[in-house]
User: What shape does this take?
Amino acid sequence: MQKVTVLMSIYNGEKYLSEAIDSILAQTFSDFEFLIIDDASTDKTSSILVDYQKQDKRIRVVTNSNNIGLTRSLNIGIGLAQGMYIARMDADDISLPPRLEKQVLFLDNNPEYAVVGSWFIRVAKGQEVVEQRPSDYRHIASKLFYGNPIAHPTVMFVKAIVISVGGYNEKYRTAQDYGLWWSLVGKHRLTNIPEVLLKYRQHEEMVSVTKKKDQDGNYDKIRKKNYWKAVFLSRGRVFVGSIAWRLFRWGLS
Assistant: This one.
């Protein structure tokens, strides 16, 4: 049984898929299975996956009979995963070679942590910009209300802990990662390795662009649901003065 499951869900992602898969197969850490959930793709995704599966026995492909969305596909993957750690991977990103090795080492040495992400390079319109994210757990917990301090495709998490909180909330077809962080924070620690371990590709076909309205709406629902938890975690710093516009927007003021 492998120590890590790299979990990817894909729908019609043929354009960048080979680059993404190659970046995982080139990792310095090799004790992993690569579980790919094909969410009923209609482009060349399936044939690309078949070819890769023939080349590397660590690749395991599961194909949904119909398109069910990212959240449900990820939960299926968590249920099928054999690794004690699960590393998320998107079909349009590139993991740098030491990513898995560094994240496994961190979780092995810091059992109080449930999730570890990293800094990343945002690739957009031919430009590359380093995006830093906080490492201190208390800082992440206190700032979670204002945004998402952990980039989903950079993370590795402890499977048993994520299962214990119910996995991804299937009420949210988008922003499912943000909901998961809220399920974990306060009970478990989350962090980012202060090092670039992934290239995050930004383009017009990504979910945060094509489903922006839905994603923004889910962010607001999750914030509203966790408002008092945010006040507690921030020791009161999340208060009326800084969030009055949000309360007004939600009809709470």
